[in-house]
TrEMBL record:
<keyword id="KW-0378">Hydrolase</keyword>
<dbReference type="InterPro" id="IPR001279">
    <property type="entry name" value="Metallo-B-lactamas"/>
</dbReference>
<comment type="similarity">
    <text>Belongs to the metallo-beta-lactamase superfamily.</text>
</comment>
<protein>
    <recommendedName>
        <fullName>Metallo-beta-lactamase domain-containing protein</fullName>
    </recommendedName>
</protein>
<feature type="domain" description="Metallo-beta-lactamase">
    <location>
        <begin position="37"/>
        <end position="325"/>
    </location>
</feature>
<dbReference type="InterPro" id="IPR036866">
    <property type="entry name" value="RibonucZ/Hydroxyglut_hydro"/>
</dbReference>
<dbReference type="InterPro" id="IPR051013">
    <property type="entry name" value="MBL_superfamily_lactonases"/>
</dbReference>
<keyword id="KW-0862">Zinc</keyword>
<keyword id="KW-0479">Metal-binding</keyword>
Length: 342
């Protein structure tokens, strides 16, 4: 019996931001701040002809920090911000401590050329610390959750006014949205919820062949997953709650091993373990809010991830969960950064 198709996954340094702990977890020191990575990931998929398709998940922080004026006003909350190493640089030169740890020789040449060697970029969601520098990837096709392009253009309700986004953040003619999902309940059905943008006739996007059959299907405890390459090696996971259009990735590394790239499903590993809950803080209007658009939806999404990992573990299958902003994971796993791999 032939082995199931797999991908390789490597973490990429793509800037650092500072998170006030009380905004993310319960029972936190109100003064404590943590400098955390904004990780990107390189995913490599072997094609039948022996070539490799390169996909990048998230682009991290803009190295020039040129954001909208409204975003600039909010950057103080996340200072200090470090842009010494961005996603494109990590692809070109490798991650410095990964090269040493993985015993890969230093090179003055390129590992990968962002301008030529990246085929696809999936952006987990529209927040500023994940959209990076799309202009570094002039030949890539971008893919985002349904409604994301509309969100960039018009915003989404009082929590996300349009001036918090660049309406041209992504190259419109090279960007596709994953299919929309019909939802019950309030979330995603509000009058201001962003609408799906269909692929225009003049699109220059080059989606994988499997895109013609893309459809959301359940995978264990995950109700909506999409088989990106059509061979079971990489699934896009609908993960509502954090912000409209938020998606995660589930990558098969081997017969008994997956890695779950959780984006901003949560921002602290103690939420994955269940040791802490989602933090609440003053919303500026006399109430409390969390870092998520809908706290209950985000909590439900995280619960499903936990259950998926638990059930797979009972089947003898390991699922490693990696958050976009986990300093402990980054510190302990330099060997899993590019040119190393998970």
């Amino acid at each position: 019996m032939a082995a199931s198709p797999t991908v390789t996954v490597s973490a990429l340094d793509a800037g650092q931001i500072t998170l006030p702990e009380h905004m993310f977890v319960t029972d936190a020191d109100p003064e404590k701040k943590n400098l955390v990575p904004s990780l990107s990931f390189l995913i490599r998929h072997a094609e039948p002809d022996g070539s490799l398709t390169n996909l990048v998940f998230d682009l991290g922080v803009k190295r020039d920090l040129k954001y909208t004026p409204a975003q600039q006003n909010e950057l103080d909350t996340w200072q200090p911000i470090n842009t010494d190493t961005d996603c494109a640089q990590s692809l070109r030169n490798g991650v410095a401590d990964a090269i040493k740890t993985a015993d890969v020789a230093e090179t003055n040449g390129l590992f990968l050329d962002p301008a030529k060697d990246v085929d696809y970029i999936i952006i987990s969601h529209a927040h500023w610390d994940h959209t990076g520098m799309p202009s570094d990837f002039p030949s890539a096709t971008f893919a985002v959750g349904s409604g994301t392009l509309n969100l960039f253009k018009y915003g989404a309700g009082p929590a996300y006014p349009a001036d918090l986004f660049n309406d041209d953040e992504l190259p419109a003619l090279r960007t596709i949205e994953f299919p929309p999902i019909s939802r019950t309940g309030i979330y995603g059905n509000e009058a201001y919820a962003p609408k799906h943008t269909p692929l225009p006739e003049v699109s220059q996007a080059k989606p994988p062949a499997a895109a013609a059959k893309w459809a959301w299907k359940p995978f264990g405890e995950l109700p909506h997953t999409l088989d990106f390459f059509g061979d079971g090696s990489l699934y896009v996971v609908d993960t509502p709650g954090h912000i409209y259009g938020h998606v995660n990735l589930l990558a098969r590394l081997g017969e008994k091993k997956y890695v779950y790239l959780a984006g901003d499903c949560c921002h602290d590993r103690r939420l994955v373990s269940g040791e802490r809950d989602i933090g609440l803080y003053d919303d500026g209007h006399g109430g409390l809010r969390s870092i998520h658009t809908d706290t209950d939806e985000a909590r439900s999404s995280l619960h499903r991830v936990r259950e998926f990992v638990k059930k797979k573990g009972e089947e003898g299958i390991e699922v490693e969960v990696v958050l976009a902003h986990d300093p402990v994971w980054r510190r302990e796993n330099a060997h899993k950064c590019w040119p190393g791999k998970m």
